[in-house]
Description:
The protein has nine helices and seven strands. It is of the alpha/beta class. The chain has one domain. The longest helix is centred in the middle third of the chain and has 14 residues, at 70-83. 32% of the residues are buried. The mean pLDDT is 96.
Amino acid sequence: xxxxxxxxxxxxxxxxxxxxxxxxxxxxxxxxxxxxxxxxxxxxxxxxxxxxxxxxxxxxxxxxxxxxxxxxxxxxxxxxxxxxxxxxxxxxxxxxxxxxxxxxxxxxxxxxxxxxxxxxxxxxxxxxxxxxxxxxxxxxxxxxxxxxxxxxxxxxxxxxxxxxxxxxxxxxxxxxxxxxx
Length: 181
């Protein structure tokens, strides 16, 4: 599977496109929907699953260094809930999260995306101003499409915490072809 194929399978999924269009309608700066939104879809396809694996949340990130107030994230999350109450939105300004995580300033949202816990999770999708799908994969997609669950060293998370996180999420049960690295 290639980046183009990931974009294609998402483009052909009406639910995913609707979610992306909802977020695009907010016209926020430098935004992406990442983590399980993309990862689960790829793993589901690679496992031959016809039904979507449920998401714990929809990780929506953006980058706005001019307003790093957490209340702004909550306001945006509320806006999204008004548009689709049934979706589990999680909104984080990566300009703020850089300081929460103690990483110092990030350059953009993709820089924040590159620091998520698992390498296969460091992927995001968005619609550009013309409505064309874009994929961000700052660490590449090899682990994602290779069904490898690997700790991202940039995340700063301990190996033991990573292992417990994977166990708690039951990924190896949900997607039995996955391999821990």
